[in-house]
């Protein structure tokens, strides 16, 4: 069933590249979501992604209790990006974002960052996370990681009876901006990391090949790379008790949640565990609260997860 409010797919007049915006819902308020820039096999893959991700943003905003709906945008990279082409496609995309008149407000996502929001902002005011020197709050990776750590505290307490994961083996799959900060925050745990990019390997943590990350024996798995990583097959092969991570849309389909539950594996939905970035950004940029107050709102993810797991207080 079609449940999105609006989907527009456009060929950019400067770049000739395809960009798109999907608004899933504005029922709770203007829709927010990231602008993803990546290569896809087919345009239909990109459309499927933008529809899935925009719906996940509606769930994320609802669970976080912020007065916004969910949207997402995608820039389909179909050739090597020179700096000129990158700028052109961002300007093309900015025109599309602007046509939504504020019903979609864009933030960075995989493949884009605060500096790209500066380019969008040349055409549209409807952007978040400009660099701090431009009056924005910059990258939201820090608050996102903080939210994941809050979710981990609550879930760890539920599963292991301890909040700090002391001595527990934790596998962080995806050693990028968020994964790295989550690993750093798990000071008491025995952390192993994994990434498709071998250059990210470090002596500080154990290392496991990405193909093995979802099969190794451990206590906790933190998906911090890409979506679609929990399929019926990977769920059947997991040897962990707890899965909590920032990667959006971790399940290949909703039924995988039941498979995990049947196996006694506790999974905290990604739209709850990954909400720290959106909570922080909206608190600072829309509500105008200070850094510490915004972080307190992020830390409330711990309470949300306690309530979700029936250990609320
Ligand atoms: N940054 C945020 O504020 C934020 C907010 C909400 C959700 N997320 C989600 O969290 C995840 C991580 O975000 P990020 O900002 O750290 O991204 P990032 O691009 O900085 O890091 C992702 C890392 O995953 C690696 N990777 C890619 N494919 C992989 C694979 N198959 N197996 C293992 N590693 C792989 C990449 O090499 C990279 O190091 C993404 O799914 C993102 O959508 C991020």
Automatic annotation (TrEMBL):
InterPro entries: Aminoacid_DH-like_N_sf (IPR046346), Glu/Leu/Phe/Val/Trp_DH (IPR006095), Glu/Leu/Phe/Val/Trp_DH_C (IPR006096), Glu/Leu/Phe/Val/Trp_DH_dimer (IPR006097), Glu/Phe/Leu/Val/Trp_DH_bac/arc (IPR016211), NAD(P)-bd_dom_sf (IPR036291)
Residues reported to bind NAD(+): 174-179
Domain Glutamate/phenylalanine/leucine/valine/L-tryptophan dehydrogenase C-terminal: 136-306
GO-annotated molecular function: nucleotide binding; oxidoreductase activity, acting on the CH-NH2 group of donors, NAD or NADP as acceptor
Cited PROSITE patterns: PROKAR_LIPOPROTEIN (PS51257)
Residues in the signal sequence: none
Keyword Oxidoreductase included in the entry's annotation: yes
Family: Belongs to the Glu/Leu/Phe/Val dehydrogenases family.
Full protein name: Leucine dehydrogenase
């Amino acid at each position: 069933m079609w449940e999105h409010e609006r989907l527009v797919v456009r060929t950019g007049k400067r770049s000739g590249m395809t960009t798109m915006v999907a608004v899933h819902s504005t029922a709770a308020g203007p829709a927010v979501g990231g602008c993803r820039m990546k290569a896809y096999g087919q345009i239909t893959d990109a459309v499927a992604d933008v529809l899935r991700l925009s719906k996940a943003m509606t769930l994320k905003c609802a669970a976080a209790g912020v007065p916004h709906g969910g949207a997402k945008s995608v820039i389909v990279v179909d050739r090597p990006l020179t700096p000129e082409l990158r700028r052109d496609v961002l300007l093309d995309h900015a025109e599309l974002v602007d046509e939504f008149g504020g019903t979609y407000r864009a933030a960075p996502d995989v493949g884009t960052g605060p500096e790209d929001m500066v380019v969008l902002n040349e055409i549209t005011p409807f952007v978040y996370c400009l660099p701090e020197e431009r009056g924005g709050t910059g990258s939201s990776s820090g608050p996102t990681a903080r939210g994941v750590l809050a979710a981990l505290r609550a879930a760890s307490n539920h599963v292991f009876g301890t909040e700090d994961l002391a001595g527990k083996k934790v596998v962080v799959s995806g050693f990028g901006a968020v994964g790295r900060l989550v690993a750093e925050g798990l000071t008491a745990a025995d952390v192993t990391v994994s990434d498709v990019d071998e250059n990210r390997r470090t002596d500080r943590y154990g290392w496991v090949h990405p193909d093995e990350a979802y099969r190794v024996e451990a206590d906790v798995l933190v998906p911090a790379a890409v979506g679609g990583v929990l399929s019926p097959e990977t769920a059947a092969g997991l040897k962990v008790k707890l899965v909590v991570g920032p990667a959006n849309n971790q399940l290949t389909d909703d039924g995988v949640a039941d498979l995990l539950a049947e196996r006694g594996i506790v999974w905290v939905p990604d739209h709850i565990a990954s909400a720290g970035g959106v909570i922080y950004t909206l608190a600072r940029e829309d509500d105008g609260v200070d850094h510490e107050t915004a972080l307190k709102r992020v830390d409330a993810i711990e309470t949300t997860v306690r309530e979700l797991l029936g250990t609320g207080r």
